Amino acid sequence: xxxxxEEAFQKRIDEEIKIEPRDWMPEKYxxxxxxxxxxxxxxxxxxxxxxxxxxTRAPNLRRKVALLAKVQDEAGHGxxxxxxxxTLGMTRDEMLAELHSGxxxxxxxxxxxxxxxxxxxxxxxxxxxxxxMNQVPLCRASYGPYARAMVRVCKEESFHxxxxxxxxxxxCQGTPEQKAMAQDALNRWWWPSMMMFGPNDDNSxxxxxxxxxxxxxxxxxxxxxxxVDVSVPQAEILGITIPDADLKWNxxxxxxxxGVINWDEFNQVVAGNGPxxxxxxxxxxxxxxxxxxxxxAAVAYAEKREKRKQNTENTNAA
Length: 318
Ligand SMILES: [Fe+2]
Ligand SMILES: [Fe+2]
Fold this sequence. Notes:
The chain is mainly α.
């Protein structure tokens, strides 16, 4: 019986029919998705912190409005994704408890500090740019609620990317000091952005299963290559240099070759030893604890309304 269910499940996936919350699914599919979607949700929420740091210091009102909208979008992305993850049988409180205890991961990119205004440019350009590469294929993921959430997320990400690139363009056309700030931000964000695609393919043991289930459509290395290929001409337009001595066009491959990622640094950041891991987690835990009274008040208010509704119904019935 189990075998037939599993075969039917795979057949639906092969035919590009979406899997919905009430459909039968293998336990491992459910767990894989739950881990991926909840980590994705946590990344959106933690990802608000490095940029939130600069909202009060944006150089003018237009930049402030755009950055505020961008950071608010990320909160929205977190909420769509928590909702999608909840359909797989875990409550939002449970997911947040895992984030706060350190059990659940989020994207390691957000454990780097934002030192100057140019970082808002580099993050929008590169981090949201890398996020788009990763997320566009997820709009076709086999799990319906995840795929549908990603459609709107991706539309907003493309605004984020342009917002960042425009900041970089303005800085690069400004004074030598401004251009130097842009170069410095590129130097610091390039390699962490490259790490956003995850380990190399031969080091990514769960990829084959995720590909078979059509959660994953392209491998980590394929996506990373795409990211390099689109970023190089963008850096050329800006007139700044990607910090990679091995970066060069490979005519035979029709792609850019690039240097080796420092996987030791990646593993350290994932393990909790990045420059801002403790600060980021503390910010989330503090927000949860300081917001307890709001959650309690909301529950008390909902209970009061429910009671009043019942009283009115009783009176009307009598
Ligand atoms: Fe986002
Ligand atoms: Fe974004």
